Amino acid sequence: MSVPVKPRSSALAIRQAKGQRKIAMLTAYDFPFASLVDGNGVDIVLVGDSLGMVVLGEADTLSVTLDDMIRHTKAVVGAVQHSLVVADMPFMTYEAGVEAALANAARLAQATGVRAVKLEGGAHILPQVRALVQSGIAVMGHLGLTPQRAAIFGGFKVQGRTAASAKAMLADAKALEEAGCFALVLEAVPSVVAEYITQRIGIPTIGIGAGAGCDGQVLVLHDMLGLTSGHIPKFVKQYANLKDQVAQAVSAYVADVQQGQFPAEEHGFAMPEAERTLLLGNDKKKG
Ligand code: KIV
Question: Which terminus of the chain is more solvent-facing, meaning fewer CB atoms within 10 Å of its CB: N or C?
């Protein structure tokens, strides 16, 4: 009897999940982690440009290039069998206009097999969103703290704290929905604002630092696994402490090597006895 295979998710399925169930999204940037995330029930695997910070050791996301995204998205798409894969369009690959956005998204889609992208921003990127959707590429929006514009916000700061800015964010959210986005990330906005927006748009909101009133949640994988160092945002829940486990494993390995405990006999390869004799004569001790 064959085991029922969970079908591959789609942008349409995610859009239809609004009001039916909560959506779980996590980032991944390479084959082994993407396989683990996909194999454990996540709806969406995001190849985020947080890649720059949590994998490449950069201070922000601006140095991430389209080639970086292609390399990592290809690895993730190759690993994922069930979840929807979404890839971030990196800084300055869509802001210049519709033509640039189409050309860069086409490169990303053709080189990796990804069929959904995420763009940061509101009203000023609506033509790009419309053109991508019309060309067959699904688009996820991203409002609130949009890290590609952190310099304008004066750093990684909570957005939408005033009634006026919350209403402006809702207007952007509605415009992104109207332009064809299938879902919307809300990052670092007051919980009440995220819920206010979630209740007023027809596409799912995926929150990060946006409270429980969103239709889904996303975390950066390396943050929730306890793999990142330095400042961890308040909204991160750590589900594991892999940094300590990795440190313990590495120091145990170093000690084993230094003390001659590794490799043991079972980690080595034997030579056929006749060849060994040819090589060493009958002197077994040298073996
Ligand atoms: O780049 C990223 O990982 C993201 C998430 C934080 C939503 O955009």
Answer: N
